[in-house]
Design goal:
Rossmann fold, DNA polymerase, domain 1, 2 domains, about 45% helix, about 10% strand, globular
Length: about 220
């Protein structure tokens, strides 16, 4: 295994519910209402800017560029204020990150979240040192399901480590159909966990687990063999 790449929301932290609550709060003044099921079906896996674009179309709203920036800023503040109290790490994630580091496997984060949110979460979990490459919504032009983020993560890991990082020998961990589509389009192997979607929605994965408790480096290496 040349590299192990993690999504963040729903893979490192069970933070999707906080994202949903954040959007509910900042969009309430615009009359936007949705259920968790609707959010997961239509918007999960996209970055905040893409979510606002999609919601604008769905609810007949034309957000100005200034409004978009203000809404994203308010939602980011909501996450920073509530992430620690309202979310827990995905079971087994800290152990898997440590095991990968001990095995010398380069690691990265590739997420549609914002850098401030992800940096806060990695620091809270005490694993920031293991991720020399962290790609967020601010770092790529095309969000998931486009493979740009995963392709770029492999390139940056190769630059950082001086190792050959071949995408078919990389494993990425995701929790959504959108994320899995990006992994497969990048030519990587995909492990999915059911923190957000049921197994039936994660058919693009090479393997599905309920969480990361029983996931080992050996298991991930077998996805490549």
């Amino acid at each position: 295994m040349d590299a192990l790449i993690f999504d963040f929301d729903g893979v490192i932290f069970d933070s999707e519910p906080v994202h949903i609550a954040g959007f509910e709060q900042v969009l309430e003044p615009f009359g936007v209402e949705f259920t968790r099921e609707e959010y997961c079906q239509k918007y999960l896996g996209y970055d905040d800017y893409e979510v606002l674009e999609l919601m604008g179309k769905d609810f007949g709203l034309a957000f100005s560029p200034q409004q978009v920036e203000e809404i994203v800023a308010r939602k980011t503040r909501y996450l920073q204020e509530n992430l620690a109290q309202a979310t827990k790490p995905i079971p087994g994630v800290a152990e898997l990150i440590s095991a990968a580091a001990a095995a010398g496997v380069p690691q990265a984060v590739c997420s549609g979240g914002l850098r401030a949110e992800i940096d806060t979460g990695l620091a809270r979990l005490g694993v920031a040192e293991f991720f020399p490459v962290v790609l967020t919504a601010e770092d790529f032009t095309h969000g998931k399901p486009h493979p740009e983020g995963y392709i770029r993560a492999a390139e940056l890991l190769a630059q950082h480590t001086g190792l050959a990082i071949n995408r078919p020998s990389c494993v990425a961990i995701e929790d959504s159909p959108t994320g899995l589509a990006a992994v497969r389009a990048a030519g990587m192997k995909a492990l999915a966990i059911t923190s957000t979607f049921p197994p039936t929605a994660l058919s693009l994965a090479h393997r599905i687990e309920p969480d990361l408790t029983n996931v080992t480096i050996e298991m991930l290496e077998k996805l490549i063999d």
